Every structure is written in C-alpha cells, then in structure tokens.
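Protocol step 4 of 5: obtain the predicted structure for the target chain.
Materials: sequence only (see below). No template structures provided, no constraints applied. The aim of this step is simply to have a reference model before the mutagenesis design in step 5. Sequence pasted as it appears in the construct record:
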Amino acid sequence: MNHIRNASLVLFMSLSFIAAAQKEKISGGEVVVDATYKATLLQSEKIKTDFSLPTLDTTTKVQQYELTNRSYKVEYLPPKLRPIAMGSEKKEQNEVKNGYVKVGYGVPSAPYADASYAFSKDKLRAIATFNHYSIRSAKNDLMRYGNTGGNLSGNYYVSKNYAVNANLGYNQETPRYYALTDTASSVNTTQQLKTFTFGAGIFNTATADRSLTYGASMNFYRLGDNFASKELGTTLQGNVTKWFADKHPLSILVKGDFTSYNSTETAGSERLNNLFVQPSFTFHGKAFSLQAGANLAAVSDEWTPFPMLELSVNVLGERLAAFAGWKGDLQKNNFRSLTDYNPFLNSHISTFLPANQKLSNAEYYDYFGGVKGRSGKLDYHLQAGYRPVKNLALYQNNKEAKDSLTFSAIYTDVNLSYLKGSVTMNIVKDLELTATFVQNIFIMKDTLIAKPWGLPSTDINAMIKYRTMERKLGLKGQVFFQNGIPYINPMGGKADKLGTLLDISLGAEYNINDNFSLWLDVNNVLNNKRQRWYRYPSFGTNVIGGLKVKF
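Step 4 output (structure tokens):
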C-alpha cells in the first residue's frame, strides 16, 4: 500500500506542476524538452564523443563493434559491443528527404535492413523506424545471433503552449547459446529476449519569457524470454523548472520507478520500487556555472539523500574550462539492464543469489573533475574520478559445470577509479578524426571475489572519416582495442583472463545521386576471434554491403 500511495503522490505532484503552469498566462519562446527513452536499436557510431557521466557500453561480436552509450549510471564499464555491422553512421538523412531504406547482405550469412521515415503534417510530427540484422556461421550451425526491432513515436502540438507525445516499440534479440558445439544435444540453445515498450507524456512548448517549463510522462515495458522469465517496468515522472533572468533554472523532478520480475525459479514475483525527488538550482555567472541540489531516493520507504553538486569555470574562454563535482544515485540491477549488457545471462538472473535478492539497486557516489574545451579544430574532454559502488553487477560463468552455457549475476562492493576522455578533430576539410578512451581501476572490497568478473578495464576507440570526389565517396577506418576480460576458469576454478581485442575495420559509401548510394564494410580485418564472454568467440573477418535509397 505504501508504494501505491507513493505512486499516487508522484502522479498528483506531476499534475499539480502542469496545473500550476497552465495558470501562468504565457506564450512565445522555446523550450528544449528531453525525449523519453525508447528501447530501439538505432544505428549508432562506434565512436561516441559524449562522455557525460555516467554512461557507457559483446558478445558474438560479429560484423561491427558498435559502441553504444548505455544509460547504465554506475558506468562500471565501457560500451557494449553489438555483434553485427550497423553501418557506422548517425542515421543521417538528406535534408530534403523524409526517409531511407538501407539493405545489404554479408559473408558469413548476414542479412541486414534498416529503414526510417519521418512524417510531418499540421500539428503532428512522427517518425517510424525498423531494423533487422543477423549472422550465422557456415561452420557451426549453433553460432547465430539476430536482432529485429521497430518503433513509432511522435508529438502532437495541441496549441502553441503545450503538446503531447507517445511512442510504441518492439524489439526481439535472439542470442544463441553457441558455446555448446554438440549440435545433436537436446539442450535448448535458443534464447529470445522480447521487449515491448509504450510511453506517453505532455509538455509545454512555448512561454512568453521562458519563465516556466514543465512536463509529465509515463513509460512502460514488458520483457519476456524463451525460458518463462518476464519483467514489467513502469516509470512515472513529473518535472517543472522556473527560470530566473532567463538563465538561472530552479528545477524539481519527481519520479517513480517500479519493477516486477518473476521466473519459473521464483515463487511469485520480486519487486523493486524506487522513488526520487530531485530539487536543484543552477546559477550561470559570466565565467562560471554552479549547480546545487539533492537527489532524494526512497526504497521500501527508506530515504537516502545523494548530493548533486557541480562547478564549471571558464579558464580561457571556450579554449579551456575546468569542472568538478560530487553526485550520487541509484541504478537498478534488473532483468532488463543485466541482459542488455550480457545477453547470455542465466534466464533466472542468478543461481548464486538467494530468493528476493535477484533485483537490486547499485548505489554509488561519484567524485570527479576534469577539463574540456576547443582549441582551433580540436575539441577535447578529459575527466578523472573516484566512485565507490555498492552492489555492482558482475558476470560469472558457472565454475561448477564445464558445459555451462550461461552466466550468473553476482553483486559486490567495489571502489572504482577512472580516467576517460574524448577528442574530435577536423584535420582538414572533409577529414575528421575522433577518438575515445576509458581506463578503470577496480579495487574489490570482498576478499572472496578476486576480480571484476566479466568487466573490461581498458577501451580505446578511434575512427577517421574522409569524403572525396566532391563528397560523393565517403571512406572510413576504425580501430578498437579492449583488454582481456577476467573470468573464473572452470578447469580448477581459478582466476584467468581472456585474450585482448584489436579490431581494425574499413568502410566506404558511394553516392550515385541524391537518392541512391552503395555501401560496403569490411570488419575485423585482422580476423581476431577473441572471446568477449568465456567460450563465445567472435566470428572473425566479415564483409557486408548493399544499397541505400533515400526518399
């Protein structure tokens, strides 16, 4: 009853914010509204230059090592590696085109399709997306991976003062347990992670003097798999911001995050419900900005205050700025977040965790500082920090069974020190270099857990792009390095380390005209078959190409 009462409070406060905002007779101006999260796999660059904390990202790493910035706030480690080429582009569309269809085929067997269409009429703005990619080895019939998803989202501007939005999505990820090489085995090696998402919200679109902005939203997901495990999640959120002098925001965000999980292994369902109240004020001076606030988090009616402090100072204008901060938060370890990082996870989350402890919050504080800026054609961001984490999720293979196909989640406390950075440089016209790196140092607090099982410590990623022939031909090259992953070797139950990853990939796209282009990617040129997860090697060198049509 307490959670129902608290959820009602969240909704009441959200509606109160909107009602208060509507009493303000304001119009004009513009407000930037953050889009709600949509569980779809859009094309993304291997390189991501935004290193905002805490985000980052595997498995059957086949075609392209796609770097996806996860919203995993603990940021225990870098990007997730998707196992197939996604094109290494930012879903760029011709300015006068509403949509595109990109299709291709690869060797080994790898069909690929991606499509997007944007629709705009009167007060409606909508976009529909679809993507499919899969891979299948010619030597091992079990060595497969697939992902298919689609999403429909849009905004409807009821008036010049407010709008409503909604999104509907579905995604199916199919990671086969191909560590089992005996194709005649009766073991079920097919996993299917099916995620349905729905969301809706309301927000104001304009104010006369930008004095007040507000919004409220609801997001829902259902995740089910092939082994009778499922999870339901609902997020209710309301926020309001009062602007002073058009540049100093006083904000409050209220959020309820509710999760219910059950499987054939558990009796009934397990629940993890979090409530957040986040008031903050940001002052923008001539040469500095200061954010001060609090993140008040409640679990089982027990409240924990986290800090929300950050100071940024312009030392040399846009060329050099220094920043430092102290923040804290909760991040859920649930079925969705754990399988997103490791799709070979045990369907029942863990055989090592007792009942009613499979869902858990990772709790952390983050003390950080760094520098960022722009010098000529170079943009840079460098950050260092210290982050003590409680209940960090690790991934351990079953050390008691040599033929174990899945991994179990275990939670432990660590002290994490990190250094990360990014650079982007336009060397000359049409020649761009981007690079990122992350270095983490884990100090394990539990003496029974020797290493951060399943988590890499070093990631280095660099990409160079060049356009020539009057920009009709685009060329790219990419290098990705990741250190060996610690794991428990079933042969003796001792700590061991998987091999390092050094991947070099090349790609090209030629624009025949404004509507048609040809593309080709040659991935993993060095034929590195390193295992990201124990007994799951990557596919090695692969080639994929096809046609892109814009309309």
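Step 4 remarks: DSSP finds two helices and 28 strands in the chain. The helical segments are 2-23, 335-341.
Proceed to step 5.
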